[in-house]
Amino acid sequence: xxxxxxxxxxxxxxxxxxxxxxxxxxxxxxxxxxxxxxxxxxxxxxxxxxxxxxxxxxxxxxxxxxxxxxxxxxxxxxxxxxxxxxxxxxxxxxxxxxxxxxxxxxxxxxxxxxxxxxxxxxxxxxxxxxxxxxxxxxxxxxxxxxxxxxxxxxxxxxxxxxxxxxxxxxxxxxxxxxxxxxxxxxxxxxxxxxxxxxxxxxxxxxxxxxxxxxxxxxxxxxxxxxxxxxxxxxxxxxxxxxxxxxxxxxxxxxxxxxxxxxxxxxxxxxxxxxxxx
Length: 277
Hints:
Order of helices and strands: HEEHEEEEEEHHHHEHE
Strand content: 15-25%
Oligomer: single chain
Strand order of the largest sheet: 1-2-9-6-8-4-3-10
């Protein structure tokens, strides 16, 4: 009997300790990032469902990596980009955008849960041909400005992006047949050329299935038609956070004068710090 009550006592104490730890964890303040610019500040929330990007971004901010770097690429109606370490103290006219910390981050693409609405924070990366796995730059990021779209425009974009997915896969499938296709063209075998292309296209569509059909859900459409964004980038880049406060700062930076490389004529430096809420 004594051992039974001792067991219950130990179990009760363990439960209390566990609940205490759980409550302590729940009460931990959320880490956010404050981005300071000459045009005002932006407060950024990072997503838990992109853990590798979140952890990496917080680490770099904590180390002071982003301090004094530039928004080196600005396109009004599209986005503002920064995070190239080579932009720190860069001379006027220098081409920027190829620098990084020396590593990439595996893609964490969560469309349609995460999409390119205005204020979205996403990771820059190399294009698909050089980077088929769509790995993210270790430090470069962009913040979406975008524009509002009509429902018809989104319908057209769904179709275009589906075709783009097919064409991208087709490029890979055609590569082994390049010599055969070239030989057909040289001897004027148009029928054989078109038949092989059609065969590869059908195989591609079968392989991709529904994944080639990008669809914007109603709740996503509502945001794009009211707040705006850049939906043509959806499902291809990792969105890992969003601007909670300071959307007007994006507009101010996006409106500055830029050179032929989309670099602001007057440098726009940033500093970042972690804040807890």
